[in-house]
Write a structure and sequence with these properties.
It contains eleven helices and ten strands. The chain has helices at residues 9-18, 37-45, 55-62, 84-93, 106-118, 137-143, 158-163, 182-186, 189-193, 209-214, 232-244, and strands at 4-7, 23-28, 49-52, 70-74, 96-101, 123-127, 152-155, 170-174, 196-201, 217-219. Strands 7-6-5-9-8-10 form a six-stranded parallel β-sheet. Helix 1 (9-18) packs across helix 6 and helix 5 packs parallel to helix 6 (137-143).
Amino acid sequence: MKQQVLCGLHAVTAAIQRRPEAVLRLHFTGELAPRFGDICRQLAKARRIYRTASPEELTALAQTPHHGGVVAVMTPREFGLPSAETVAQWREQRARILVLDGVGNPHNAGALVRSAAFLGMGALVVAGDAAPMLQTTAAHRVAKGGMDHIDIFAVPELAPWLRGLPRDIVTMGTDQRATRTLWRAAQHPKTRDGAVVLVVGNEEHGISAPVRDACRLMISIPGAGHVESLNVVAAASICMYALMGS
């Protein structure tokens, strides 16, 4: 059986609340024991292991000293394809969907998920080869529980999937060289009145050429010009905030 190690109070609590059946083992310091009383009673009924552990034991389990006093071993969450019914719901709800193209740092991925969950994005989509990164301990810890409060999907390849979306869904990529600004795009009637898929790219190279070609619109965030660009988390968060208000 595949296993996933989560740590950090927010990440572990959210995962257990949303996926209690996935918990295999739970370890926590004595100081945090009062917080897990109800959860431990549920685990006892399900005959799952829980116990107190020293910080050093938790560090060994999590492979990081940044465990926050709790480590859970769980069955990993599976990320499926978005169905035609799911896409139809996005259109009906005028959803905002975040797509990660080549984001390679699990800390950045976790921070993006945290922002997406905070801002109420409808879902997150990644390419299939990027899905394992979202299962990492680091990504979950940085997401602060956001990973279990947003729908996540994985598609084999992003470019064909984007091209196959209905024409009335705005597919919008980020590129600081684009002449159309985020503010202008966010106020366009098609954006205000319909579903939007926002694509952000790799930390160094941005959006890949095939995915860029599949986007119907490229946008930039105007700045003061003192530095070339924002990092991917800051740029995506600004874009998501602007789109949620449109």
